[in-house]
Design a protein that fits this description.
10 helices, mainly alpha, 3-stranded antiparallel β-sheet, two-stranded parallel ribbon
Length: 308
């Protein structure tokens, strides 16, 4: 494709950026490069798949979908949007809140040679590198049956790698990231706050839940998010747009709830990503011999008491 005169130069440039990010990633961790992203797949749609997240009306918690041998996931994905919409409608009829979002990349965890997808090409340079780092991280570490922790961890590593990869623009990127991080933490805090209120005083039915959700969004959530967007002079502030409900709160927590704890691990490991990865992998090997049901809980036990 890179030498094909019929392929648009902008596509070739994106492919080169992806290959460079891939090379940097494996070199950074001193790992042999895998054949992942060696081929390109042009999709018929902008997104590669569509995720449907659901949450019961009386809690902020993703409905778990179980698969024999593979475990549980806090969503169900579809390659066709029409299929996702049909599934979403079934959940709505069962009084679930739902959230449907497009997916532009995914990882098969190194089991298959994932291709570069045309959906990658909508991302600009910095975001594209972060996307590649995120998906590649899944190929070198993935804790079984802990989707939330895996996504939070991959997000953290990808974000830190971007700062090192674009070191010449580090200050500029840091300033932007600090604003984004403040927004993320605010959404996490408000989502958990609303979830706690539902736990303490569960709504009687879906109609009652709708009313409480409307009040929370209009009186608390949206005003605070919009104010931060204005303060940070963010012209495009996706967090202040679209429909928010229990399912979208739960989906957001999947990717961001553990970020503070992961940051603490990073600090304990001397702000060294390689050392951090090495220790996490070591602890994961030991985890199987413990009484803990979740690896994240085992890590919290270790780092709350002080790194061993």
């Amino acid at each position: 494709m890179l030498v094909d005169p019929q392929v648009d130069q902008s596509v070739k440039d994106k492919i080169q950026e992806i290959l460079q990010a891939k090379e940097y990633f494996y070199d950074y961790f001193s790992l042999p490069a895998q054949k992942i992203y060696s081929k390109v797949k042009f999709l018929e749609s902008e997104a590669v798949s569509y995720l449907v997240v659901a949450s019961a009306f009386d809690r902020v918690q993703a409905h778990q979908v179980s698969f024999p041998f593979w475990g549980e996931f806090p969503y169900l994905g579809f390659f066709k949007r029409e299929s996702a919409l049909r599934y979403q409608q079934k959940l709505i009829e069962q009084d679930y809140y739902t959230y449907l979002r497009p997916v532009y990349a995914y990882s098969t965890l190194g089991y298959f040679q994932d291709r570069i997808l045309s959906s990658f090409f909508i991302f600009e340079k910095e975001d594209l590198a972060e996307l590649i780092f995120h998906e590649l991280f899944h190929t070198i570490f993935f804790a079984k049956d802990e989707v939330n922790f895996n996504e939070n961890l991959a997000d953290f590593f990808a974000g830190q790698l971007v700062l090192e990869y674009f070191s010449e623009q580090k200050e500029e990127i840091l300033q932007k990231r600090q604003k984004q991080e403040t927004l993320k933490k605010k959404v996490v805090m408000l989502s958990n706050q609303y979830g706690q209120k539902l736990k303490e005083n569960p709504p009687q039915d879906k109609e009652h839940s709708d009313q409480r959700l409307k009040e929370f969004l209009e009186q608390s959530f949206l005003p605070q998010i919009k104010k931060l967007c204005t303060d940070f002079n963010l012209k495009k502030c996706s967090l202040a747009k679209g429909e928010w409900n229990n399912a979208r709160f739960a989906a957001y927590l999947t990717y961001h709830e553990s970020s503070d704890f992961i940051e603490k691990i990073y600090q304990n490991e001397g702000h060294d990503l390689r050392q951090m990865l090495s220790q996490i992998q070591k602890h994961y090997q030991d985890y199987g011999k413990t009484k803990f049901k979740k690896f994240e809980d085992y890590l919290k036990e270790i780092y709350q008491k002080g790194k061993s």
